[in-house]
Amino acid sequence: MATTIVLASGSPFRRKMLEDAGLVFEAEKPEIDERAVEAAVEGSGVTPEDLALILAEAKALDISQNRPGALVIGTDQTLSLGDEVLHKPRDMEEARRRLLALSGKAHQLNSAVVLMRDGDVIWSHVGVARLTMRDLEPGFVGRHLSRVGDKALSSVGAYQIEGEGIQLFEKIEGDHFTIVGMPLLPLLAKLRELGALDG
Fold first, then answer.
1. What CATH number is attached to the domain comprising 36?
2. Residues classed as catalytic
3. N or C: which end of the chain has fewer CB within 10 A?
4. Residue 48: is its pLDDT beyond 60?
């Protein structure tokens, strides 16, 4: 019998990545309060990479406990500037401040993926990418945000690297899929190893 694969995410980007890779899967949006999960580990010395993994596990668990036998993929991504973890901007003014704060600096995207069955983690991985923004003039940031609009509010960095956001960068080190939100190659390799994918 074929393994049921469930993506524990409401992200259209992550869904498209798996569809483009030829996976047959279902998608369910987990109902977790990410800020509450973060608050529970605050001050415990958790790294931004660990936090991405904790959030990915929480999402997978939320779906896995209601899907017996299914292989559930949980994912999350954190953006860290040094030791500080940044969240999605609430409005365009915060997006503007975010881009100016990242201007001329390197930040890190930490993309975690977890495979869970019946509430047990059977595999996890964190992909890391380092991105260096070029020096951005405040006027350019304003014009950029007026062009991209509310899309800027859908990612922690206030940019979509797969779109016009690529113009903000001078250097990118890391895997494209990790940057977009899921370390796809290690995930596909593990699914093949588990017999959930042909290969």
1. 3.90.950.10
2. 76
3. N
4. yes
